[in-house]
């Protein structure tokens, strides 16, 4: 479902296409800055398995673990996947705190979801010394996770549009850990001088964002979105 959050046409994250070589990826992006990769994966088969109907048929009765959209909260809630899709997958209320916003992303049971992930074609690049782990998510319009950081990774949009905000490790963003990304965008973002604004871009289906180690990032789903990340640990 399309949301009411407008898309920002400006994109300040560098883009690269399928002509980007592995050596150039390592040299220009892997350890220094994010990049949006276009045309490096073909996940049409995976996308066909990720429609609402197919996912409900395959995983409806299975429990999924939801997390709160709060940088420092680790509260988890287990609900049947069908209950999440039919009752909790709603547009974000701008007045709702992150600790009261439940988000399906990150805690995937590989016994149950593993067969689906076998159909996913990951980005072709790796960081030496790391191994990949998948994290699958579905979230409503206006939802997202507030600023946080961890190791490097890729994130691909399967359905919908997803807006990203990124800061380098030495530039801590100004945010409240229990404020949703939507509230931050409405209240804090407009007050930032141009020099203090994050790198940002909106990803569309088939596009992959790479973010280096320890880069701050926050996300905002402009539509009901399906997405998958490949974390390099």
Automatic annotation (TrEMBL):
<protein>
    <submittedName>
        <fullName>JMJD8 protein</fullName>
    </submittedName>
</protein>
<dbReference type="Pfam" id="PF13621">
    <property type="entry name" value="Cupin_8"/>
</dbReference>
<dbReference type="GO" id="GO:0005634">
    <property type="term" value="C:nucleus"/>
</dbReference>
<feature type="domain" description="JmjC">
    <location>
        <begin position="99"/>
        <end position="233"/>
    </location>
</feature>
<dbReference type="InterPro" id="IPR003347">
    <property type="entry name" value="JmjC_dom"/>
</dbReference>
<dbReference type="InterPro" id="IPR041667">
    <property type="entry name" value="Cupin_8"/>
</dbReference>
<dbReference type="GO" id="GO:0000987">
    <property type="term" value="F:cis-regulatory region sequence-specific DNA binding"/>
</dbReference>
<dbReference type="InterPro" id="IPR050910">
    <property type="entry name" value="JMJD6_ArgDemeth/LysHydrox"/>
</dbReference>
